[in-house]
Amino acid sequence: MNFLSRLVVDGAYFLNTSEAYQRKKRFFYDILENDRFQYKKYFDIFMITLIFSSVIILIVEVKSEMNIYLKFFNVYVISFIFFVEYILRFWISSSVSEIIISRSEHATALGRKFYLYKAIIGVITAKLSFVFSIKAIIDLLAILPFFHELRLLRLFVLFRVFKLFRYTKSFQTFTSVLSTKKFEFFILLMFSSVVIFVSSVLIYVMEAHNPASPVNTFFDALYWSIVTISTVGYGDIVPVTTEGRIVAAFVIIAGISVLAFTTSIIVSAFTEKLDEIREIKTIDNIRKLKHFYLICGYESVAQEVAKKLKNSKITIIVLDEDIERINSAKKDGLIAINYDPGNIESYKKIGIDLNTQVESILCLRENDVENVYTTLTVRSISRDVNIISLLMDDANRNKLKFAGANEILYPKGLVGMISKELIGRPVAFEVIHALRNDYYGVDVEEILVDERMSQNLVHVSELNNVKFRIVLLGIYKKETKRFFFNPMDGTLLESGDYLLVIGNSAFIREFEKHLHKKIRT
Hints:
Layout: H1 3-17, H2 19-33, H3 40-61, H4 68-92, H5 96-109, H6 116-131, H7 134-143, H8 159-162, H9 164-167, H10 169-178, H11 182-207, H12 218-229, H13 242-288, E1 292-296, H14 300-311, E2 316-319, H15 323-331, E3 335-337, H16 344-350, E4 358-363, H17 368-379, E5 387-390, H18 397-403, E6 407-409, H19 411-419, H20 431-436, E7 442-448, H21 451-456, E8 471-477, E9 482-485, E10 498-504, H22 505-517
Parallel strand pairs: 1-2, 1-4, 2-3, 4-5, 5-6
Antiparallel strand pairs: 7-10, 8-9, 8-10
């Protein structure tokens, strides 16, 4: 690796391991893209206010003399804010340092030479994919009014209205629903275009030579066709010949067909996505809740428990993979989602914090196997959330305990306990159990020893993994293609080797940053 390539890679590692840089980038990503970030809604309201202010100033300015300060605010201040926003979105759209590092590590792992120009091409490709996206183009057009000397460019203020799609979820939902019918809209557009063109030619041929006809040019014919097929019918251009009126009759019928086809496409699109839209709205409402009980499974015992909790004015969320039971829960006035409580993806989709938002998770399936599986899944996400499980067969008690249930009760005992609102306290779990069940926070990772790391760290004793509470299980040596378990302190570290470590995932990330930042003295 030549000097320039080494300098670029070192710079990429510096940015990737710099806490200050990553913290700033994460903040701007959250405020621009992360809907769950608490301050994003205030930023959205601010940007929407600027958009409407800009359009209102443009409208008033048409026939009234605008205050010089308002002009300055509209042309310079708002444009500058939008420009800064565009630059920030360009910055966070992809990580230059991560692209360079991944290319470098990939080349090292395969024993190949690292080519800087290939990494640069990857960076340019990633950035251009943002620049040529529809939303980025709209953002760029919204900045053009800054060049107010070109009066025509001031009309691009109207493009700022399209930026509302970035800040309003309803618009985003509307466009996403319509995008599912792209093919149907394309067919409709082709049909309408053919009808408009054919009718324009026909009406022009039939009417152009008649002095009494208002159709004098092909543009007049085209204008008449569009107005007629859209069923607007202004009446400013009307065919006067018999042949022209026959053409008009066919165009009117075609226009009704186009309108009916358009309406049916939109209605069918929203009908197909209605359940999904409701689900998204429900999930958004759940994410805003501060405290609630999560019931996994909605059978007879769960119905009794839910009734007791509901009478106590406690918020309840129901998860069940069976749509009939979900409908039953909704009829009972509960918030219910048709997700499998035993699937980790269900909790990722909901996006709730089990530790802070959930008072207790109640595993109430009348099947011990299902309850054990749900408990294991929840414990793989959170070690602290309180889990209360139903027990149908005492032979399965130890399995539920091992899975991590805080309270295990028979149906009658469970209903009684919920009635008294007794909440247990979370307990610790065995590490080996956590690893076997994909325990959240504890992970096993492979760390590649690249050329840069091998120059700064020569022996295992220099890793300093104990400081980060990381356990080094072993080293896979690239040269011998062998794995050495619990290596000696004097074991040599070489480029291409792999460190197999175990520990908290956050500590592993910090440990890996430490390895990349460590400079041999």
